[in-house]
Automatic annotation (TrEMBL):
Residues 9-279 form the Carbohydrate kinase FGGY N-terminal domain. InterPro entries: ATPase_NBD, Carb_kinase_FGGY, FGGY_C, FGGY_N, Ribulokinase. It holds the Pfam family FGGY_N. Signal peptide: none annotated. It is an enzyme of class 2 (transferase). It comes from the Bacteria. This is Ribulokinase. HAMAP family: Ribulokinase. One of its GO terms (biological process) is L-arabinose catabolic process to D-xylulose 5-phosphate. Its EC number is 2.7.1.16. CDD domains: ASKHA_NBD_FGGY_L-RBK. Keywords: Arabinose catabolism, ATP-binding, Carbohydrate metabolism, Kinase, Nucleotide-binding, Transferase. GO terms for molecular function: ATP binding; D-ribulokinase activity; ribulokinase activity. It comes from Lentzea guizhouensis.
Length: 557
């Protein structure tokens, strides 16, 4: 297909708190316009909007109507900002957080939109960071180990409470009426494409990473039935659907979706994708050894490899899960930017806020400035970055945060820097796990909003002892989605060709400082000792504290 030099595509990135649309020129990847729409309901983790009823701990829901509002607002605003005619747009692609699950009827209507289920929290979207299915995940893991299920090592030996099966089993056991009414248990990445095309397609990425689809099959009925007899038909009845490859055309934009977005009816709609995985081509990281860390509220680490290896604690490995012809690996940290934001809300004295306001800067900027003046180890602290649990390599969302070494002289900037360092140590643990398993990490590419923090980037380079490359776009997922739209529209034969023409990266932007590398090596050994002590069963106090909290809240309700 000949590429019209004026042809454009739209990428839409559905994040945790908002959706972002970007208009991209097909022939060179130029980003012409962008717009953001905040989700009206945000993350529903305190009370259910329909009732005001408090939600239990570890719940995180969303309202699917918020996603449609992104199509109605951000997409036309981005096109207007780009200064182009909508007729120039030849395709649209989307990405989503994962694993974010929507229970729907046969025609795709979310159950929470039905009057009879509006007051049932299980009828709503279960956001990726919904961790209340840990008990179900524990049972899945124990049974899989006992039975020697061959798919378990493909997920580092542990299935997460964030994923499709644990969340689905929770719905069955806690809200059987919702489970019975649910015709499809759908990844939000596929649900939004369904709304755009009128046709349900299931993408191979989430099926592999979040849906335990390996070697052409899901876990069998006998396994599922042993978890719960009523769960035996979960795959056949609620989940199974033909899979579509990344970059394929899912269908054409319907008249209704064209009205929402202002785009031409009939243009190509790409198969759904995941925000982290779709970012790798945008950063031109399509070859083995190039690990991309997409750093935001959480961090997802993705990379491609030429060989299949079993990496302890990885989130999954999928054939063609990122680019065709290579094994796509995933790992991640459940909390990164969320931890920094929590500390600002809960741990910073008013005087810091007043000082930042007086200078016209953010508290983040003030703390970063103060922390940057410290030598490595000067604050005398070590922290564990588990305030939102541990996704890799321990895969345990019952774990919690720790700061060791505080004294009466400890200041806010000390703890802030220790938390920055803790997230870098967490990434180091992941890289070491891959390297030790025979999957070499030769380059670390950073994407996401946290690339703006120069101190954080230097800490990461020093802790992992690798030069950092930085994606050339501030809209990595949305750009990656737009690139897949270009492939779906036929402008490029595959995502590698699209990446070469439309992707962007700045190589070796931050390099390690040798004396810092040496100092952090000592601190990392202490971090690793605490990591294993609290995370590998030597001391289960974190699990007990979680249970004490649940018990106390249960007595109050």
């Amino acid at each position: 297909m000949t590429i019209d030099r004026d042809a454009c595509v739209v990428g839409v990135d559905f994040g945790t708190l908002s959706g972002r649309a970007v208009v991209v020129r097909v022939h060179d990847g130029a980003e012409l316009g962008t717009a953001v729409h905040e989700f009206r309901h945000g993350v529903v983790d305190q009370v259910l909007p329909a009732t005001g009823r408090p939600l239990p701990p570890e719940w995180a829901l969303q309202v699917p109507a918020d996603y449609l509002d992104v199509l109605r607002t951000a997409v036309p605003q981005a096109v207007e900002a780009a200064g182009i005619s909508p007729s120039q747009v030849v395709g649209i692609g989307t990405d989503f957080t994962a694993c974010t699950m929507v229970p729907v009827t046969a025609d795709g209507t979310p159950l929470c939109d039905l009057p009879e289920f509006a007051e049932n929290p299980h009828a709503y979207v279960k956001l990726w960071r919904h961790h209340a299915a840990q008990a179900q995940a524990d049972r899945i893991n124990e049974l899989a180990r006992t039975r020697g299920e061959t798919w378990l090592p493909r997920y580092g030996g542990l299935i997460s409470s964030e994923w499709e099966f644990a969340k689905g089993l929770q719905v069955l056991e806690e809200a059987p009426e919702v489970y019975a009414a649910m015709a499809h248990w759908v990844e939000a990445a596929d649900w939004i494409v369904w709304q755009l095309t009128g046709t349900y397609t299931r993408n191979s990425c989430t099926a592999g990473y979040k849906g335990i689809h390996q070697d052409g099959a899901y876990p069998g009925e006998d396994f599922l039935g042993e978890l719960n007899p009523e769960f035996a038909g979960f795959v056949a009845d609620k989940l199974d659907h033909p899979l579509s490859a990344l970059g394929d055309r899912a269908g054409s934009l319907t008249a209704q979706a064209a009205e929402w977005t202002g785009l031409p009816e009939g243009i190509a709609v790409a198969v759904g994708n995941v925000d982290a995985h779709v970012t790798a081509p945008a950063a031109q990281a399509v070859e083995p050894g190039q690990m991309v860390a997409i750093m935001g509220t959480s961090t997802c680490h993705v990379m491609s490899g030429a060989v299949l290896r079993e990496v302890p604690g990885m989130c999954g490995v999928v054939d063609g899960g990122i680019v065709p012809g290579l094994w796509g690996y995933e790992a991640g940290q459940s909390g990164v930017g969320d931890i920094f934001a929590w500390f600002l809300r809960s741990g910073v004295p008013p005087v810091y806020h007043e000082q930042a306001a007086a200078r016209g800067i953010s508290v983040h900027e003030l703390l970063t400035e103060l922390a940057a003046g410290q030598a490595v180890g000067e604050h005398g602290l070590i922290a564990l970055d588990w305030h939102s649990g541990n996704r890799s390599v321990l895969v345990d969302h019952e774990l919690s945060g720790v700061v060791v070494g505080q004294t009466l002289a400890t200041k806010a900037e000390d703890v802030y820097r220790a938390l920055l360092e803790a997230t870098a140590f967490g990434t180091r643990v992941i890289i070491d796990a891959f390297t030790d398993s025979g999957v070499a990490v030769t380059e670390l590419v950073i994407a996401g909003g946290l690339v703006k923090n120069e101190l954080l980037m230097q800490i990461y380079a020093d802790v992992v002892n690798l030069p950092l490359s930085v994606i050339g776009s501030a809209q990595g997922p949305a750009l990656g989605s737009a690139m897949h739209a270009a492939v779906a529209a036929g402008a490029y034969p595959d995502i590698r060709k699209a990446a070469a023409a439309m992707g962007s990266v700045r190589r070796n932007v931050v390099t390690p400082v040798p004396e810092n590398v040496e100092a952090y090596e000592r601190l990392f050994l202490d971090y690793q000792e605490l990591h294993d002590y609290f995370g590998r069963g030597a001391n289960d106090v974190m699990h007990r504290l979680r249970q004490y909290r649940r018990d106390a809240l249960g007595r109050k309700s």
